[in-house]
Design brief:
The protein is of the alpha/beta class. It has a domain at 51-168: Pyruvate-ferredoxin Oxidoreductase, domain 3 (3-Layer(aba) Sandwich). It has helices at 2-12, 103-110, 117-128, 133-141, 150-162, and strands at 16-22, 33-39, 54-57, 76-81, 95-101, 165-168. Strands 3-4-5-6 form a 4-stranded mixed β-sheet, with helices on one face. A two-stranded antiparallel sheet has the order 1-2. The chain is globular and about 40 Å long.
């Protein structure tokens, strides 16, 4: 759902975007992958992305089970949900910009559950500059929510944006 909201926000800003979810036989709580293609012209390629420019990791433990940096392009942007500081992370050489957000802490405060998707959309907007906070909110208004309401998710996006620390690595 987060990749679809981000795609809608990017389209709102005049770009083309295509959200490509990746489903498998995962159990609830298992690592899930979603891909998003963005371009200034119509997108015809509907495949997974094997050499991403940006990575959003909404779970600080997933990198222990999955190589999230496989194929990551040099000069890429990484947005990580974590309480850790810059000094506590192992940062690959190909990362040029890093956004750090305590998304779990924010989620527990807002939702009383570790639901980090909306928060990390705000973190991505601040870190990458690819999409505005207003466009994300517009994209969010078109989403359907089962467990959490629109107002909570609007607050989550704002807090993710405002509470993310952005680091220029190289």
């Amino acid at each position: 759902m987060a990749s679809k909201i981000l795609a809608k926000a990017i389209i709102e800003e005049g770009q083309y975007a295509l959200a490509i979810p990746s489903f498998g036989f995962e159990r609830r709580g298992a690592p899930v992958t979603a891909f998003l293609r963005v371009d200034d012209k119509e997108i015809r390629t509907v495949t997974n992305i094997y050499h991403p420019d940006n990575i959003i990791c909404i779970d600080p433990t997933v990198s222990r089970a999955v190589d999230i940096f496989k194929g990551f392009q040099a000069g890429g942007t990484w947005v990580q949900a974590t309480k850790k500081s810059l000094d506590e992370l192992e940062i690959p050489d190909n990362v040029s910009k890093l956004g750090l957000c305590d998304a779990f802490g924010i989620a527990l405060d807002i939702f009383k559950k570790p639901i980090t998707n909306s928060i990390m959309l705000g973190a991505f907007a601040k870190t990458s500059g690819m999409v505005s906070l207003d466009s994300l909110k517009d994209g969010l208004e078109t989403a359907n929510f089962r467990d959490a309401g629109l107002d909570q998710n609007m607050l989550a996006i704002e807090r993710g944006y405002n509470e993310t620390t952005v680091h220029q690595i190289n």
